[in-house]
User: Fold this.
Amino acid sequence: MRRFLLIGTLFVLFLIEGTVFQVFAPEHYGFGFQLIPRFVTVIVVMIGMFMSPAYGVIYGIGFGLLHDLIYTDLVGVYMFGISVAAYIIGYLSKVFQLNWFTVLVLGLLGVSLVEFYVYELFSLINVTDVSFHAFFYDRYLPSLILNGVFLLVIYYPVKQLLEGLSESRRQENQAKRRSFL
Amino acid sequence: MPQFFSNKRLVVLLVSIIVLVALIGTSMKERNALTMPEQFFKDSVGWIQSIFYKPAHSVAGLFESIGDMKDMYEENELLKSRLNEFVALSEELKTVKKENQELKSELNIEPSTGLSNYQTFHANMIARSPDRWNDLLTIDKGKQDGVQVNMAVATPNGLIGKVKNVQPFSSTVQLVSDVDRTNRIAAMTQEDKNVFGTIEGYDTEKEVLLFSKIPVDIKVKKGQTVITAGNGGIFPRGVVIGEIVDVETDNVGTTQTAHVKPAADLYDINNVMVIDRGAQNVVPDDGEGEEE
Assistant:
């Protein structure tokens, strides 16, 4: 039940990124900066922290692939990026005690990993020609603030949901993780 | 902290990087059509997206119209004065059209084979890529409605892009601002004589299109309107692209590039027109866009 709630939430956020958010995007009103919503990435990274890196990878592959199919033409970019970010952050989180501040820092680190990876990859294959300076100031920093605020807003409900999920599936998780990696 | 990279994980990582490269390689190739599962996903998600997009857009539209109310009176005055001009112009157009027809029939030119003959049908935008790297829109008309790959897409103000992929019930539009080496449009500008060139890309920082390959001995001025030329492929002639804001000579010095500001606002898109030049299978437009 809880798992469907999680998948449902992620799917709704995924849709909001491309629809509702685009209506209220700052370019619409003539601002020079871009706000890139990475709501799904934020939650998938949190899954990596609160449940297990392996779960982060699974959700990352699923929703990354969906993102690739619906919003881009290149299959595999986000699938790889989000799952690797969730994996790395999931492991890093083991050294920290998780409270709202460390989760915020680690979550934003995950978003940054995805942003920089996608920027570098797309520059490499000529999907974009934005200079690093423009990328960093007009796009990366504003988006970081947006996603940070988003993370703080959803922190408590999502934490409750994820901890409940990982508690009830602890035994199962153990077996699954061993077979997955 | 558990060991970060065991051998097994390293192998998994390497294999997935190889798979990533292979996937990107195959999906970057010029493809005529998407695979069945891709079409299926895009269509079904597109349907759900439209449920999300429409209410959001109408809420935003409400705020916008409240904002517009301030200027309404002045605008109304201005428009009234322009209306008289319009009547005169449309009379002139009628006579010119008639004269044109007469002259054509005198010269025995077949009507309707012109480059500028086209039909449009309306569609609503339902989603846009949230990462600005890919400037792609999804619209709610697809193959079933007669949309085909490479058709021009415009708003009432001007050209915004072309159809990149079609699914049965939705299609993906690549905006002119999408940086892609295949995203080229044959364009022209009309002053005393026609000047032809190509729209070859977009400057993201200045937000202008690059209208290049103009011979250096032809003078183009600021403020000239650039329209589609229609002599390459499926675009019709005469769709407004934008206005020249700046001209510069290329490094080599044999051609010049003009910066063109798109006439359509690429971020304020709701109802779009898909332009079909071949008039063989056009679905009559139902235009059910919720106009405020």
In short: Chain B touches chain A through 49 residues (CB under 8 Å). The domain at 185-262 of chain B is CATH 2.40.10.350 (Thrombin, subunit H).
